[in-house]
Design brief:
Family (chains A, B): Belongs to the gamma-glutamyl phosphate reductase family.
GO molecular function, one term (chains A, B): glutamate-5-semialdehyde dehydrogenase activity
Catalytic activity (chains A, B): L-glutamate 5-semialdehyde + phosphate + NADP(+) = L-glutamyl 5-phosphate + NADPH + H(+)
Radius of gyration of chain A: 24 Å
CATH superfamily of the largest domain in chain A: Aldehyde Dehydrogenase, Chain A, domain 1
Structural class of chain A: alpha/beta
Distance between the termini of chain A: 46 Å
CATH class of the largest domain in chain A: Alpha Beta
CATH architecture of the largest domain in chain A: 3-Layer(aba) Sandwich
Mean pLDDT of chain A: 95
Strand order of the largest sheet of chain A: 10-9-11-8-7-12-13
Number of domains of chain A: 2
Helix content of chain A: 40-55%
Organism (chains A, B): Aquirufa esocilacus
Number of helices of chain A: 14
Low-confidence stretches of chain A: none
Pathway (chains A, B): Amino-acid biosynthesis; L-proline biosynthesis; L-glutamate 5-semialdehyde from L-glutamate: step 2/2
Order of helices and strands of chain A: HHHHHEEEHEHEHEHEHEHEHEEHEHEEEE
Shape of chain A: globular
Oligomer: homodimer
CATH topology of the largest domain in chain A: Aldehyde Dehydrogenase, Chain A, domain 1
Strand content of chain A: 15-25%
Largest interface: A-B, 66 and 67 residues
């Protein structure tokens, strides 16, 4: 563990050289990373194969772990796209002269050292390093052991790009994957400024419990879509189907349909065909279950209490029928993970009340919850979707990898 | 404990009514609080006397705890001043139409429920409640047991003002002072959105260690002033004396003078008279000790390693003499608590390098570190000075009692 702490200290020390490097230098590093990904693609794929060889041929993680020539091109492309985003550091947020003549300004500066704990996807290594370097932050990366060969060569290339531009390789540190070293990271308050866990709920819980370093939680998304009494039914069906099936394993996908009783029968009648074609398993409440049963819906279950507030991450969802708008709001307030929530309605007053009253990172009127995403929002690549309220809420992208600094310039002012 | 959790839940539920109340209504509550402080001053002073009666007549805490007619007037005045600050919620941070027609905006909204743990000063009760109500946040207050009678009547008046304006009294909850209930607060992730500890280093450590709720650390200030080779000596003496003696018990007061060797003798020669008059105990390093000894400085000690990075909170400081600018930066980087740091110099290049390289909430050139304060910065009353980097850095005032919310308005957009 002492070696790891020593390396954290080196990363802390080196971080200021990166913070003070020019935007051009930092972008030159990114450009070199993209070039090296192309040039060394054969080496990367060879190392990636070593990781794949450790997994059974039908292991579900293989696809997330596997790199191909095409995926490497996409990865290099995403590094280039980060170069084109505005530098979030060095922005002047306010500037004024106090009555005593002190010139006071507030500017954005890099956070310092960002720790990211993530699981097997090796593209995270490049994405996080690119975002951190672009914004002048040093990074401590703790990837999954399944991807260790791939991550090692990727960080080797990042180091090469740093050296080519005269910046210490200490600014990007790939930690060993020993489980107990995660604790060293979570308690290194002197060296690490923020920790971002990317991964399972269990990981996020561990970080929340153990970390002494401030964290950004990128938590689970338990997302509702409320189909109101005045919803246009075909629009509601399109939105619900899209929110559920376009990518069910991601955090902004639909988990529960909240349905006004007056529209329930008509809505479900139209939902049956598309949901059947995607084989969506439906955990239906007491009211919707008999309706779906009478429509001969083939993938039907009785909802239990645990099926509300449940993140399905699969072709599955629950349905809750409510008597009125207030019951819908109350259900969402109780079970929401405050990620993304939507209402489908033609009633503007009701919609505006929903947008105001529902406490979530993103709220939608007549649109799919699937839009909550850094790329969709025009923010570029994201480190995760924050479901907490401090510092960043929703997509945690480049623009949030900064803190503030107050600068006072005087001529001898005292208080 | 179950009662406390039930009350947290009531506070959570009530918080949205406050968040959705108009700015006029929230300000009417504040106005009524100010009026009630005046009208009920005799009752408040009587309850305050009960708390004072629990303390020995020479107890150092008496002064912090004691209210007077004049202090109550100041308190009512500070509530009125919060009314005049702009509402931090409801600001549109960005607004755009995505290529698919989705109208996407990012607005500020209240954090929700803010938990504040503080020690004996009863003015905090009113200040925090006023800031929270103004910004649409519910508040859970956990004050010190020494001030329980005073806090109880103050919260009673706040409740009266809420009732007069049709808002549930649940939005301001004064917790019982049992120590174990602090744990209930720190782990109530479902009900509390942020916790702010105000008080001793021990309290802040406990919160950092135990809290599952995101926190804003308002930590200790270990503040340096670097007197550079090219400093104007009389200015440097004025700044150092002000930073040390104007209010030594607060976090932005000076703890260590870092002194360039070439100017050490001349600077100390001028420092001796004012420091002697304030009886400032000086913990001097190997170089400055003989100099001060030869100047017959009467309050002299030999600095130990522990005297660097030490927050004195008294008429005392340490002195470190350095060979060059880099050694000064390195000393500050090692021992700073990243609160407030200053350089005194006539060299603009060196000053700008210092302002950029030193990692602290506030950095000053030719000014006293004592300026780091919400009121001085024009932000109004503050809940504390944040020494962490997420969300708020430096004075944590009204403007930071908000989070963001993304709002997407569509016409059936799917992804």
């Amino acid at each position: 563990m002492s070696t790891v702490l020593e390396q954290f200290q080196l990363t802390r020390s080196a971080s200021s050289s990166l913070a003070m490097a020019s935007g051009e230098t930092r972008n030159a590093v990114l450009s070199d990373i993209a070039t090296l990904i192309h040039e060394k693609s054969a080496d990367i794929l060879r190392e990636n194969q070593k990781d794949l060889d450790q997994l059974a041929i039908d292991h579900p993680m293989r696809d997330r772990l596997k790199l191909t020539q095409e995926r490497l091109s996409d990865l290099a492309e995403s590094v280039i796209s980060v170069m084109q985003l505005p530098d979030p550091a060095g922005q002047v947020l306010s500037k004024k002269t106090l009555p005593n003549g002190l010139e006071l300004s507030k500017i954005t500066v890099p956070l310092g050292v960002v720790g990211v704990i993530f699981e097997s996807r090796p593209n995270v290594t490049i994405d996080v390093a690119a975002l951190c370097i672009r914004s002048g932050n040093a990074a401590v990366l703790r990837g999954g052991s399944d991807a260790i060969h791939t991550n090692t060569i990727l960080v080797h290339l990042i180091h090469q790009a740093l050296v080519q531009n005269g910046i210490s390789t200490d600014v990007v540190y790939l930690m060993p994957t020993d489980r107990e070293l995660v604790t060293a990271l979570l308690t290194a308050v002197k060296f690490i400024d923020v920790i971002i866990p990317r991964g399972s709920e269990a990981l996020i819980q561990r970080v929340r419990k153990e970390s002494l370093v401030p964290t950004i939680e990128t938590g689970a998304g338990v997302c509702h879509t409320y189909v109101a009494a005045n919803a246009e039914i075909s629009m509601a069906v399109d939105i619900v189907v899209n929110a559920k099936v376009s990518r069910p394993a991601v955090c902004n996908s639909l988990d529960t349909i909240v349905l006004h009783k007056s529209i329930a029968s008509a809505f479900l009648t139209q939902l049956v065909a598309p949901f059947t074609s995607y084989k969506v398993k439906v955990y239906a409440d007491n009211t919707s279950h008999p309706l779906l049963k009478s429509l001969n819906y083939p993938f039907l279950e009785v909802a239990k209490e645990a099926d509300f507030g449940r993140e399905f991450l699969d072709f599955a969802c629950s349905i809750k029928v409510v008597d009125d708008f207030q019951e819908a709001l109350s259900h969402i307030s109780t079970y929401s993970s405050r990620h993304s929530e939507a209402i489908v309605t033609s009633d503007e007053v009701e919609a505006n009340y929903f947008l105001s009253a529902v406490d979530a990172a993103a709220v939608y009127w007549n649109a799919s919850t699937r839009f909550t995403d850094g790329g969709e929002f025009g923010l570029g690549a994201e480190i995760g979707i924050s479901t907490q309220k401090l510092h960043a809420r929703g997509p945690f992208a480049l623009e949030k990898l900064v803190t503030e600094k107050w600068i006072g310039i005087g001529q001898g002012q005292i208080r």
